[in-house]
Amino acid sequence: MYLSPLLFPSRPYHALLKEDKLETDELNNPLNDAKKAQELFDEEVSAFQHTQPNLQDILCSLLYTDMHFFGFFKYLEKTPSGEPVERNMSFP
């Protein structure tokens, strides 16, 4: 969800809507939470892939080494232009 403010600037506080909690008396529904998180991730991937390539490169260059973003770029197999892939990157 760290990428949401960058990829969806019109809705910078991208909270996962808990529709199931509005409809039922369940205290928690981990399966539904996981499905909502997957849907958001898929939306973020799609939004990033539809972003202009030069903006993709800028975001990747600025955020690649941040532990909150690294996994996203690794999933997309996107690295900062001209830099080799570091397989065992550690974070502070």
General description of the model:
With 92 residues, this protein is mostly helical. It has helices at 4-7, 19-23, 30-49, 53-63, 70-75. It is elongated and about 45 Å long. The model has no long low-confidence stretch (mean pLDDT 80).
- The counted number of beta strands is 0
Which ranges are low-confidence, i.e. pLDDT below 50, for 5 or more consecutive residues? none
* Cα-to-Cα separation, first versus last residue: 20 Å
Average pLDDT metric: 80
Q: Gyration radius, to the nearest Å?
A: 16 Å
Question: What coarse outline follows from CA principal-axis ratios?
Answer: elongated
Task: Tell me the number of helical segments per DSSP (H or I, 4 or more residues long).
Answer: 5
Q: Helix proportion of residues, in percent? A: 40-55%
**Biggest sheet overview:** none
What letter string, H or E per element, gives the SSE order? HHHHH
Strand content: under 5%
The helix/strand class is mainly alpha
